[in-house]
Design goal:
This protein is globular. 32% of the residues lie in helices and 25% in strands. It has 315 residues and is α/β, with parallel strands linked by helices. The protein folds into two domains: 10-216, P-loop containing nucleotide triphosphate hydrolases (Rossmann fold), CATH 3.40.50; 226-299, no CATH class. The chain is built from ten helices and 13 strands. The strands form three sheets. It has a six-stranded mixed sheet with strand order 5-6-7-3-8-9, with helices on both faces.
Length: 315
């Protein structure tokens, strides 16, 4: 787990978030979360539905107030001073975020009027590279084009921190690849820091250098991708390896696999197996309520994800 330092662009300190009563009980979305995202990294945030991913990201934007604990963006508490924190953030929300009746050019103009440092040239260059016409209304664009416009708006802020809440869910494989290519180029060129929520393991493996797995509102794993893979092995449930059993989960053809926290024995784990093992661990340990279903992790499953209702972002 990453140790928090004053130089970490995104930090949480024992953050918990509890929502009001529903069906007779309260919902705890986050539980004592301590997290520090290193500067210059692209960190994948993974977890099943209800794990707290969106709550965490929305907390960094100042949309959610922690019930206890504290969050900071570039050293600024986004709840206490949201205006100052937002200056450091480019945000792509989970839901559709464009105004359907406005053209792409009008979205760019609006972003420039709201963010004095907004770089129109950068945003336009990204859109030109993808051949997205500025005179087209948002409602006339494909899902992939809308996502790319949202990313261009976020990149145009020249913000030190990019927060992306499952922006790939409704995109086809080619659109996802184009989106991630633009993201990686921008992060590497500007030295910014990105937190990307996604369930598509192949995409995570291609662009991210760190992995955070949330389950039941708790951090189950926080490590570099390389270390996460190197420190885990796959074996049978009745094997005994030093380091301890993470969980059991279904493998191909229904065979039960066991993820062990070990560097020897069994066979090396793939990143997909590490993620599945920790997601299964989160299911087993989740307190209260029904067991959460594992998210689909294949690219084909992501293609089938339904569109969601609009949410208006703060640029």
């Amino acid at each position: 787990m990453t140790v928090a330092t004053d130089s970490s662009p995104l930090q949480t300190y024992a953050v918990s978030k509890t929502y009001g009563r529903r069906f007779g009980h309260r919902t705890r979305a986050l539980r004592d979360v301590d997290l520090a995202i290193p500067a210059g990294s692209i960190t994948a945030l993974v977890g099943p539905n209800g794990a707290g991913k969106s709550t965490l990201i929305r907390g960094f934007v100042g949309f959610e107030r922690p019930t206890s604990g504290r969050m900071t963006v570039m050293g600024v508490d986004p709840w206490r001073d949201r205006g100052r924190a937002i200056k450091h953030v480019g945000y792509v929300p989970q839901n559709e975020s464009l105004y359907r009746s406005l053209t792409v050019a009008q979205h760019l103009d609006m972003a420039a009027s709201l963010r004095p440092r907004f770089d129109l040239a950068i945003a336009r260059r990204r859109l030109d590279e993808l051949e997205i016409p500025e005179d087209r209304r948002a409602g006339e664009l494909s899902g992939g084009q809308q996502a790319q416009v949202g990313l261009a708006l976020a990149l145009g802020t020249r913000a030190e921190v990019l927060l992306l809440d499952e922006p790939l869910a409704a995109l086809d494989p080619l659109a996802r690849r184009e989106f991630l290519g633009v993201l990686v180029d921008a992060v590497r060129a500007d030295g910014s820091t990105a937190l990307l929520s996604s369930h598509v393991i192949t995409d995570i493996e291609a662009v991210c250098d760190r992995l955070v797995v949330l389950g039941g509102g708790r951090i189950l794993l926080d490590d570099t991708l390389a270390a996460a893979v190197a420190s885990h092995r796959i074996g049978a449930p009745d094997d005994r390896m030093t380091g301890g059993l993470v969980s059991e989960f279904p493998g191909p053809a229904g065979k039960v696999l066991a993820l062990w926290r070990a560097s020897e024995g069994g066979r090396p784990a793939t990143l997909d197996e590490v993620v599945l093992g920790y997601l299964a661990s989160g299911r087993r340990s989740r307190p209260g309520g029904p067991t959460a279903a594992l998210e689909l992790t294949s690219a084909a499953a992501a293609d089938a994800a339904p569109a969601t209702a609009p949410e208006r972002p703060v640029r």
